[in-house]
């Protein structure tokens, strides 16, 4: 496919797999951005599932600390954090908190090597992508070095079993999934006006006016 030349995992497939394997009383948290988009579309709040986020404030890197708080509040419930790679990278030190407190949090990392929502906003405005590429480490290896279970998924065929395993294992788990950075989140009810990008403010300032016909 032209929008997924490296055959990375589709983020929708990751969210759907988590929905299939997560407990009916799971507590979900999500980083503001593309992780929230995929959760909102593909994870069903069935049973007594609950969702925590920072949707009015648009915070970054909130999923992991909120998951820590939720797990301390409900130690017997499954807690699943939908983490963007940018958000997780900001707060890697909290992995040590999860280890030291022995919290069985499950961290699902949408590792698209991008600040995905910023990339999408730039493209929607007709701008080239700039400053959004992330030089990520192997987050699963980082988790292992800190005493957590780390699982890394690099191909679609590995996904379902890896998600099942990550959610079934006792103790804290970080599931690092390489997802497609070119995936586009189309609105649920797209309009014609959303199909074309508006000219940027710079282009409006620098383009000369069209002379009037005589």
Account of the 3D structure:
With 214 residues, the chain is an alpha/beta fold. The chain has one domain (11-206): 3-Layer(aba) Sandwich (Rossmann fold). The protein has helices at residues 11-21, 34-42, 63-73, 85-90, 94-100, 116-124, 139-145, 159-168, 201-206; strands at residues 27-30, 50-52, 79-84, 106-111, 149-153, 173-178. A six-stranded parallel β-sheet has the order 2-1-3-4-6-5, sandwiched between helices. Helix 1 crosses helix 2 (34-42) and helix 1 (11-21) packs across helix 8. The chain is globular, with a radius of gyration of 19 Å. It starts with 10 loop residues before the first helix and ends in an 8-residue tail after the last helix.
List keywords for this structure.
single chain; Rossmann fold; alpha/beta
How is this fold's topology laid out?
Blueprint: H1 11-21, E1 27-30, H2 34-42, E2 50-52, H3 63-73, E3 79-84, H4 85-90, H5 94-100, E4 106-111, H6 116-124, H7 139-145, E5 149-153, H8 159-168, E6 173-178, H9 201-206
Parallel strand pairs: 1-2, 1-3, 3-4, 4-6, 5-6
Helix pairs in contact: 1-2, 1-8
